[in-house]
């Protein structure tokens, strides 16, 4: 995949957490799950994302605890490596290079030093044919080891990890119609065929092995669970059937003691069956999406279920939900564009049915859902219900426009245009206006004007009109509240509009009608000019930014990318590219274009001013890309390399048809992350003592401070402080003076850096005192921005900032006062 | 193939009686079934579950338990008596009163020396089994409540008795109670109700397994008297009392329990860890084949047999025990008896229906017009309702072909009536002076010209009685030259009045010459029972159907199998024919087509054309539709001997009348089900 040297496609943020069963650490403190190229570690108590295990270069497909050491975890990935991690500290211990894509990983307690992996049998990825192999891990001290000692265990198995289970020293798998049981003691394998009655859907869907007894539980397509016993004997195997699920059983899991069996399916009800007394069962209903995986902690105190709506639920053994880890909700399709909320910088898209979700990509956390439709969603197949199909933010993030519709398939289309105002007090969007019949036909495109003063919304619909909506006091109602009403209706030769876009300064509005682009002045609603470059209907339209704002870019269905110069109203350049998505970066002149050609998508990044692309990445992914967004970075990178410069200020995320959210990462970024983790490896050589913990924490804090604000000044002091401590620690105990003497010294060693910092701050503030008023304002606005930027994490930071500001204000006040007093007499 | 006018008779309201008890005898592979009406039937397990013997019941004779002691069958009932059956002559041998009130259960020990009965008065009574009778020996310690269930320890030294709310273990030597195991009552509203221990099983390792009215199967240890494990078998939200009826065990590694919801639950003694010996009882499979309460279950070598209120006997094979899967090991539901309950007067269009306690005589309707369904000109008419005198139920009955004579027999008496039928006035006169030999009959048959009555009697003999206007006269007795003395269950007389064939339960078929009144010959004994037979009117060949679906044609005159029969044996019958699960119940011949043999079983009507080639396994067996689509000239080459008609279902009887019309007596199972009492309410999924 990697073509250009230092930019590669990664799954980072918003990935599926429900791909594989999550695992719970043996002390029940952490939940580990795969998420794209990472393994994420969450706390079971607080549901917080603690850290992630980073190192794989492709989708991580399986994780399992190291049976020899419960603090370590194995992970396998499509990139062909198995990595061993210390998941508490996030340290990569070892890498085993297998050499072919891996799809699942299992370990057996009976077989130390052996891993069981799913590998693809055929080179052709379409032909889903997998086999289970066992790999002996070579004992070696090196960091990266090649493990080539493979032996096949069984072939033709299902890709679904639920279809393979390890029991007491044996493995069993299901294919569509049979269970294969392989015992390692007798090396016999045989199959149990599903009784194929006519019309009965009893294909196997999942399997679980009892931890102590020789009992295999299988789930079936018709919702039955069968418990097989006595399967060593060829014919005298026996089974008992239990039936509660009305649809296929997705997953089965025995508790570690073997006293209960947990099952889940599309009903999103977790069912707990008592092993042995089969009629007794407990239910935990209403868990959200359908249950895909269940896992239990090794002490049986916690269960984890992962759901189809990209969620992990942590459940206590008393059947109480104690935590929900919500990932980016991905339905069947994202109908809205990917958007960035200007206030919270969160990614906004369709979430739960009828909702918009706000997802923080930086912290990889689901923030909240905004209920747009405000109707009960009924879970039933084939029911036509309202869906949010369009959404747009204005430039400040104070207005949100949404379109919901239903009846897409049937002829009677029903849709609403809703406008939402941001409420500062509740820190969320509040419905302001609902327009029931905004147009007579479906709204195709919608955009806000980008000027600061007036907010204006333009909607283009299939009734061959575009309408401009303005906020203003309604003449009829005469109320204080400002509702939105129609300001202008425009059309062009009864053609259906396809797109609309405002220029960066909102002085121009471009509306494309099939092959024609019309340019309007929003102030006077006068059509200024038309641009036309047949053949092909305009598919995407956008204005250039900043220095390139005189250019208008458009793509057509006939594989043409055109750039018009608006000053001359002439075609500046055009090139033949099949662009499926054109995405301008709001913070630079750059425009990203995804083109789909011969079964793979290429990315071009260019400036409208010149037809030569800044950056090309061939074969980004194999699917078509229809959604993409530039996400601003928290802190800009300062890369000088020409090919990576476009990623300095923002990151490009795009969504493939498989609903994978992908992004690009640069070499510098990765280097920085690697360096931080490597340092941890060195630290690891120090024994973990209470002192170390105290010290380590302290040092980490210091490091953070260093990187954040004062890169140079603190260093000597910090080392000095640690030197005292080191001295204290390394001196033999019998030579040390009394503890009472040492205590103050020890405490002082902590204080040193702190005083340094405050000193520094005071110095800063003194500097600021001397600064002019203008800069003060700038500073204020910056702080305001920062405050705005963190809508979700509200009060504590704000108060801190305010406190600092107050302090500063107080100080400045004094000086001013003194000046006045001095000048008065 | 020929067209028939068919009388589709659905007015025979036969109601099979519910099954109350089952007992399996491993040595002779017979299963005995006791029904609600007091009748006892014996099925041959390895002969496709053919109903070999039927011992009709009596009024007021509720059988509660059945027990085999060796090859002797005992039953006990609420009338307080223990009955032994004479299985050879298919009748009650004697009844001994236990003097303990109603008897709820009976159990024989494995040694075959003693019988134990549990009585209403709380006593367990031991009877010694002697050569020809049983003798009361002694009582075990008397308990306060009635004894519902009993089980002997295989060693014969202990007895477990299930009672209300508890199980007692008795030492047989001393007669004292060793342990008392208290069964828990249900929770909630059923708390106030007594827990009835409906069944107990005493295993050789000292485990006692009990099934009770709370819906639990419990495992107890007899050393300590403690509960080891309990399984809830039925759901708890039904308010009526649960019945877990006879747990039945086999080889001590498998146990079945029937519930009042109609399910049979299997428990197996399985090692939890493969290759180790610590075994546990685990609930495994659940079978649901009944709609009503299961009153009795039995586990036989390869199958689970269950019966209940819905009057069907269900044989559910255990596939892990079956060596070769075949038609013999398929799921089998036995609804109707394997005897004919209908006899037809072929020449006068009368039908005699045999109910347990009465007979009904009907005249068939008449029709006119043509087509697939005919207009009924005259409705069928019930002429006679004849109630049985005495308490015994009818064993067999017959109407003469001319329709003038009606005869029936109970266990104790035989009655012959003469029917006078002029227009709408029907009257009968009882023939009073019957010969002494006609005291009772196992099977009755008239000669085709209605001049003689054949009555199968004890010792496999047939009494011959001539009938005339004045009365009847004993003519002679036909006795087989040698062989067994089993009761005759089939009689067939030839059309010309020259031959009579009899078949008994030992699979012997004897042929008698009626003119010389001597035994003519004996058909070679086949391993399977004869289910139906008939003598061909023109060739005088005896056509026999066997329980394993084989067929034979035996030439009486030449005393050998016919060429056609030998060809059938050589080529073998089609797979589909062999896989049918009900026996053929009647063999008829069409005088207009001498090569045609008409057969029927419960699900189909078949005409065998002996002139056509036999089908082999590759040919299509049910080929009527294909033949229809073929042009006339090609039909010949594709047709084979078997013409199967599946238009009719649940057939009790098919008879060819002398006017070339067929009478098909159907008893739809839906009608039977609708007359059953309502099953215990059961929550269905998603309702």
Automatic annotation (TrEMBL), chain A:
One of its GO terms (molecular function) is RNA binding. Coiled coil: none annotated. One of its GO terms (cellular component) is small-subunit processome. GO terms for biological process: positive regulation of rRNA processing; positive regulation of transcription by RNA polymerase I; rRNA processing. Residues 759-778 have a biased composition (Acidic residues). InterPro entries: Beta-prop_WDR75_2nd, WD40/YVTN_repeat-like_dom_sf, WD40_repeat_dom_sf, WD40_rpt, WDR75. Residues 338-659 form the WD repeat-containing protein 75 second beta-propeller domain. Keywords: Nucleus, Repeat, Ribosome biogenesis, rRNA processing, Transcription, WD repeat. Transmembrane segments: none annotated. WD repeats lie at residues 53-95, 197-228, 242-274, 436-469. Residues 758-804 are annotated as: Disordered. This is WD repeat domain 75. It comes from Cyprinus carpio carpio. The lineage of its organism: Eukaryota, Metazoa, Chordata, Craniata, Vertebrata.
TrEMBL record, chain B:
Signal peptide: none annotated. Gene3D superfamilies: YVTN repeat-like/Quinoprotein amine dehydrogenase. One of its GO terms (cellular component) is 90S preribosome. One of its GO terms (biological process) is maturation of SSU-rRNA from tricistronic rRNA transcript (SSU-rRNA, 5.8S rRNA, LSU-rRNA). It holds the Pfam family WD40. Coiled coil: none annotated. SMART domains: WD40. InterPro entries: Quino_amine_DH_bsu (IPR011044), UTP4 (IPR046351), WD40/YVTN_repeat-like_dom_sf (IPR015943), WD40_rpt (IPR001680). Transmembrane segments: none annotated. One of its GO terms (molecular function) is RNA binding. This is UTP4 small subunit processome component. It comes from Cyprinus carpio carpio.
């Amino acid at each position: 995949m990697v073509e250009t040297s230092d930019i590669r496609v990664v799954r980072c943020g918003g990935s599926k957490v429900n791909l594989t069963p999550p695992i719970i650490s043996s002390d029940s403190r952490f939940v580990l799950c795969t998420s794209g190229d990472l393994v994420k570690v969450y706390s079971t108590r607080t549901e917080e994302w603690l850290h992630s295990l980073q190192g794989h270069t492709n989708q991580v497909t399986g994780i399992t605890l190291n049976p020899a050491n419960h603090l370590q975890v194995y992970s396998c990935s499509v990139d062909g490596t198995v990595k061993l991690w210390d998941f508490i500290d996030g340290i990569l211990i070892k890498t085993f290079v297998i050499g072919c894509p891996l799809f699942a990983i299992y370990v057996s307690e009976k077989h130390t030093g052996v891993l069981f992996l799913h590998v693809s049998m055929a080179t052709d990825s379409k032909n889903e044919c997998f086999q289970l192999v066992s790999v002996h891990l070579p004992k070696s001290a090196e960091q990266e080891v090649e493990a080539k000692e493979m032996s096949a265990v069984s072939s033709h198995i299902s890709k679904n990890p639920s279809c393979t289970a390890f029991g007491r020293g044996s493995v069993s798998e299901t294919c569509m119609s049979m269970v294969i049981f392989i015992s390692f003691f007798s090396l016999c394998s045989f199959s149990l065929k599903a009784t194929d009655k006519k019309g009965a859907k009893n294909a196997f869907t999942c399997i679980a092995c009892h931890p102590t007894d020789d009992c295999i539980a299988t789930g079936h397509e018709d919702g039955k669970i069968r418990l097989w016993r006595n399967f060593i004997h060829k014919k005298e195997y026996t089974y008992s059937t239990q039936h509660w699920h009305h649809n296929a059983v997705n997953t089965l899991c025995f508790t570690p003691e073997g006293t209960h069996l947990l099952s889940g399916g599309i009903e999103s009800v977790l069912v707990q069956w008592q092993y042995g007394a089969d009629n007794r069962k407990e239910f935990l209903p209403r868990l959200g999406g359908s249950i895909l995986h269940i896992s239990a902690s090794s002490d049986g105190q916690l269960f984890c279920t992962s759901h189809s709506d990209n969620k992990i639920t942590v459940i206590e053994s008393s059947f109480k939900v104690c935590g929900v880890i919500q990932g980016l909700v991905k339905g069947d399709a994202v109908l809205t564009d990917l958007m960035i909320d200007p206030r919270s910088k969160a990614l906004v898209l369709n979430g739960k049915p009828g909702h918009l979700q706000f997802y923080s990509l930086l912290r990889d956390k689901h923030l909240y859902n905004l209920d747009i439709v405000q109707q009960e969603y009924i879970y039933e197949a084939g029911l036509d219900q309202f869906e949010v199909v369009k959404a747009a933010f204005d430039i400040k993030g104070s207005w949100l426009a949404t379109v919901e519709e239903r009846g897409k398939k049937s002829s009677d289309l029903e849709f609403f245009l809703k406008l939402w105002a941001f409420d500062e007090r509740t820190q969320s969007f509040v419905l302001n206006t609902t327009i029931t019949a905004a147009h007579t036909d479906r709204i195709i495109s919608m955009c806000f004007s980008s000027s600061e003063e007036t907010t204006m919304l333009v909607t283009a619909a299939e009734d061959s009109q575009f309408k401009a909506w303005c906020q203003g006091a309604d003449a009829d109602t005469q109320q204080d509240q400002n509702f939105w009403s129609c300001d202008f209706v425009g059309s062009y030769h009864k053609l259906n509009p396809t797109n609309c876009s405002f220029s960066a300064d909102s002085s121009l509005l471009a509306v494309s009608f099939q092959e024609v682009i019309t340019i309007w002045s929003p102030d006077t609603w006068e059509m200024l000019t038309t641009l036309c470059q047949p053949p092909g209907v305009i598919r995407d339209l956008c204005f250039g930014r900043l220095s390139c704002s005189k250019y208008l870019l458009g793509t057509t269905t006939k594989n043409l990318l055109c750039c018009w110069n608006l000053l001359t109203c002439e075609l500046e350049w055009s090139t033949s590219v099949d662009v499926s998505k054109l995405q301008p970066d709001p913070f630079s002149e750059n425009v990203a274009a995804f083109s789909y050609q011969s079964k793979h998508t290429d990315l071009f990044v260019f400036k409208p001013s010149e037809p030569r692309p800044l950056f090309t990445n061939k074969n980004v992914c194999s699917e078509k890309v229809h959604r993409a967004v530039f996400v601003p970075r928290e802190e800009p990178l300062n890369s000088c390399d020409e090919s990576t410069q476009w990623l300095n200020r923002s990151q490009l995320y795009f969504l493939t048809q498989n609903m994978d959210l992908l992004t690009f990462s640069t070499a510098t970024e990765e280097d920085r992350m690697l360096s931080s983790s490597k340092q941890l490896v060195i630290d690891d050589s120090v024994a973990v003592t209470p002192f170390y913990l105290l010290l380590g924490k302290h040092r980490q804090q210091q490091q953070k401070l260093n990187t954040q604000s004062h890169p140079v000044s603190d260093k000597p002091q910090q080392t000095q402080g640690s030197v005292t401590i080191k001295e204290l620690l390394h001196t033999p105990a019998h030579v040390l003076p009394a503890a009472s003497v040492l205590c103050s010294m020890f405490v002082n060693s902590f204080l040193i850096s702190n005083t340094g910092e405050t000193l520094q701050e005071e110095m800063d503030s003194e500097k600021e005192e001397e600064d002019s008023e203008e800069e003060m304002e700038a500073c204020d606005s910056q702080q305001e921005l920062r405050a705005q930027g963190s809508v979700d994490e509200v009060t504590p930071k704000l108060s801190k900032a305010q406190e600092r500001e107050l302090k500063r204000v107080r100080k400045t006040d004094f000086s001013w006062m003194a000046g006045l007093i001095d000048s008065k007499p | 193939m020929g067209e028939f006018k068919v009388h589709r008779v659905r007015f025979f309201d036969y109601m099979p009686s519910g099954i109350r008890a089952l007992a399996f005898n491993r040595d002779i592979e017979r299963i005995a079934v006791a029904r609600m009406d007091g009748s006892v039937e014996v099925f041959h397990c390895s002969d496709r579950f053919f109903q070999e013997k039927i011992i009709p019941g009596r009024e007021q004779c509720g059988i509660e338990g059945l027990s085999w002691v060796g090859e002797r069958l005992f039953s006990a009932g609420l009338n307080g008596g223990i009955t032994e059956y004479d299985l050879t002559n298919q009748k009650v041998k004697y009844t001994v009163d236990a003097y303990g009130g109603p008897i709820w259960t009976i159990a024989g020990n494995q040694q075959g020396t003693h019988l134990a009965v549990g009585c209403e008065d709380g006593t367990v009574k031991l009877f010694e089994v002697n050569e020809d009778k049983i003798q009361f020996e002694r009582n075990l310690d008397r308990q306060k409540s009635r004894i519902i269930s009993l089980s002997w320890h295989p060693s014969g030294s202990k007895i477990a008795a299930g009672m209300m709310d508890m199980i007692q273990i008795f030492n047989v030597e001393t007669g004292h109670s060793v342990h008392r195991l208290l069964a828990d009552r249900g929770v909630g509203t059923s708390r106030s109700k007594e827990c009835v221990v409906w069944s107990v099983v005493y295993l050789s390792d000292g485990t006692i397994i009990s099934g009770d009215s709370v819906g639990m199967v419990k495992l107890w240890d007899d050393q300590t008297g403690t509960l080891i494990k309990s399984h809830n078998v039925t759901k708890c939200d039904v308010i009526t009392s649960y019945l877990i009826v006879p747990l039945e065990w086999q080889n001590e590694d498998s146990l079945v329990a029937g519930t009042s919801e109609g399910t049979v639950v299997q428990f197996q003694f399985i090692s939890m860890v493969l290759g180790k010996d610590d075994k546990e009882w685990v609930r495994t499979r659940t079978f649901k084949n009944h709609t009503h309460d299961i009153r009795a279950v039995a586990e036989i070598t390869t199958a689970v047999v269950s019966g209940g209120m819905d009057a069907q006997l269900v044989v559910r094979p255990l596939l892990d025990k079956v060596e070769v899967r075949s038609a013999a090991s398929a799921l089998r539901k036995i609804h109707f008896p394997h005897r004919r309950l209908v006899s037809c007067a072929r020449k006068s269009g009368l039908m005699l229906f045999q109910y347990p306690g009465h007979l009904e005589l009907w005249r068939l309707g008449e029709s006119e017009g043509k087509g697939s369904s005919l207009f009924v000109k005259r409705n069928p008419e019930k002429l006679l309702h004849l109630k049985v005198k005495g308490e015994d139920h009818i064993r067999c009955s017959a109407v003469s072909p001319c329709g003038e004579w009606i005869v029936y027999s109970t266990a104790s008496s035989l009655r012959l009536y003469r029917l006078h039928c002029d227009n709408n006035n029907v009257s009968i006169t009882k023939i009073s002076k019957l010969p002494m030999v006609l005291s009772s009959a196992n099977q009755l048959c008239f000669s085709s010209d209605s001049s003689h009555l054949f009555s199968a009697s004890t010792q496999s003999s047939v009494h011959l009685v001539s009938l005339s206007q004045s009365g009847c006269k004993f003519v002679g007795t036909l006795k087989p030259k040698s062989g067994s003395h089993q009761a005759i269950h089939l009689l067939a007389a030839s059309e010309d009045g020259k031959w009579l064939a009899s078949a008994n339960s030992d699979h012997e078929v004897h042929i008698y010459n009626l003119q010389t009144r001597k035994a003519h010959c004996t058909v070679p004994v086949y391993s399977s029972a004869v289910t139906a037979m008939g003598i061909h009117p023109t060739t005088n060949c005896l056509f026999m159907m066997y329980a394993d679906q084989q067929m034979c044609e035996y030439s009486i005159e030449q005393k050998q199998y016919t060429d056609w029969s030998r060809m059938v044996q050589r080529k073998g019958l089609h797979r589909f024919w062999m896989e049918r699960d009900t026996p053929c119940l009647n063999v008829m011949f069409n005088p207009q087509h001498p090569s045609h043999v008409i057969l029927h079983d419960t699900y189909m009507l078949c005409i065998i054309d002996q002139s056509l080639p036999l089908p082999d396994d590759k040919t299509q067996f049910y080929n009527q539709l294909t033949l229809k689509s073929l042009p006339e000239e090609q039909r010949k080459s594709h047709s084979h001997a078997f013409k199967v008609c599946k238009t009719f279902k649940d057939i009790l009887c098919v008879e060819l009348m002398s006017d070339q019309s067929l009478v098909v007596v159907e008893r739809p199972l839906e009608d039977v089900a609708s007359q059953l009492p309502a099953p215990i309410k059961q929550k269905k999924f998603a309702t």
